[in-house]
């Protein structure tokens, strides 16, 4: 489970990345983009042998901005429609499956109650082929997640990396449900940033909603969640490489709901634990490792 959260953040001027962002036709921006490193597939659809990620662990990452979490369930962003999903198994065969039903998960907002989130779970009537492997979801405390690297896929099946800056309940003025989400910044030396990863640094752009955010834990991949939206400061341009923030939902906060949905079909939710390793002086301050919950309202400029 996600044992603590930091903030409630209201992004009033932010936009869905599934909606139109003026003059943006391409997907995510990656610093030092190199197709031989960042492209999951070659032009003929076969695996790119030079891709920086392990193909054998990615069979459950669909080609339609969705990810498999059981042999019969996949998730995506609620504000996009992904009624079918295509996977490439360990045998190299491409298979497409159509969902028979879906449901939106709920967020428990303090002092407001349960509201719809930006996570939708899709159900298949049949199991995917055994060559397609579901991924576990990342679980752990907020302090274990903030500051760690994530892996993000865009709509063109490119992938890059970034660092998680913050975590909280995020709301978008364009109509998304309140969702527990991570925040990460496109923060490079060329746009005045100081906290970026350099080459591989990824930011989300229009059309990337529902794409998969992963984390590697001791060499194993787990799902953080699905891409939700971006916040670009007034006067800045994401596609031009200016500094801005991206957001992806956090499945760990919905572990109970996900477990119940999967259990009703006879499956157990797989999880991958991430653990914080604080400095000795910090460990004493954290006590049991649960940070105080605070709330803030921030109006994007």
Structure description:
- The structure is a single chain.
- The protein is 8% helix and 36% strand.
- The chain is built from four helices and 18 strands.
- It has helices at 35-38, 142-145, 255-263, 280-286, and strands at residues 7-11, 15-16, 29-30, 67-70, 73-77, 84-88, 94-109, 113-124, 137-139, 149-153, 159-163, 166-172, 179-186, 202-203, 212-217, 220-231, 244-249, 271-273.
- The strands form four sheets. Strands 1, 2, 10, 11, 12, 13, 15, 16 and 17 form a nine-stranded mixed sheet that branches.
- The model is unreliable at 1-26 and 279-301 (pLDDT under 50).
- What's the SSE pattern? EEEHEEEEEEHEEEEEEEEHEH
For the report, how would you describe the main beta sheet? 9 strands, mixed
Q: Structural class, please?
A: mainly beta
Radius of gyration in whole Å, from Cα?
18 Å
How many helical stretches?
Answer: 4
- General form: globular
The helicity comes to: under 10%
The end-to-end distance, rounded to whole angstroms, is 33 Å
Mean pLDDT value: 84
> Which spans of ≥5 residues are poorly predicted at pLDDT below 50?
1-26, 279-301
How many β-strand runs?
18
In terms of DSSP E residues, the strand content is 35-45%
């Amino acid at each position: 489970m996600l044992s603590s959260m930091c903030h409630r953040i209201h992004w009033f001027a932010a936009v869905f990345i599934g909606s139109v962002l003026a003059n943006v036709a391409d997907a995510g921006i990656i610093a030092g983009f190199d197709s031989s490193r960042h492209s999951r597939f070659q032009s003929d659809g076969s695996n790119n042998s030079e891709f920086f990620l392990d193909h054998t662990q990615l069979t459950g990452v669909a080609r339609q901005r969705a990810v498999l979490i059981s042999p019969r369930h996949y998730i995506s962003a609620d504000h996009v429609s992904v009624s079918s999903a295509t996977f490439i198994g360990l045998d190299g065969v491409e298979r497409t499956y159509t969902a028979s039903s879906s449901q939106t998960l709920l967020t428990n907002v303090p002092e407001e109650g349960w509201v719809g989130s930006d996570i939708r779970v899709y159900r298949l009537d049949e199991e995917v082929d055994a060559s397609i492997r579901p991924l576990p979801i990342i679980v752990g405390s907020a302090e274990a997640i903030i500051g760690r690297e994530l892996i993000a896929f865009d709509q063109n099946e490119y992938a890059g990396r970034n660092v998680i800056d913050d975590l909280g309940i995020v709301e978008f003025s364009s109509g998304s449900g309140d969702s527990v989400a991570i925040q990460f910044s496109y923060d490079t030396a060329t746009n005045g940033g100081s906290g970026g990863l350099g080459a591989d640094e990824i930011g989300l752009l229009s059309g990337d909603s529902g794409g998969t955010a992963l984390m590697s834990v001791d060499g194993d991949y787990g799902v953080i969640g699905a891409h939700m939206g971006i916040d670009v400061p007034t006067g800045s341009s994401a596609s031009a490489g200016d500094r801005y923030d991206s957001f992806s939902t956090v499945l760990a906060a919905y572990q109970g709901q996900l477990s119940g949905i999967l259990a009703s079909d006879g499956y157990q939710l797989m999880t991958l634990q991430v653990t914080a390793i604080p400095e000795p002086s910090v460990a004493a301050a954290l006590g049991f490792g649960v940070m105080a919950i605070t709330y803030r309202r921030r109006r994007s400029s």
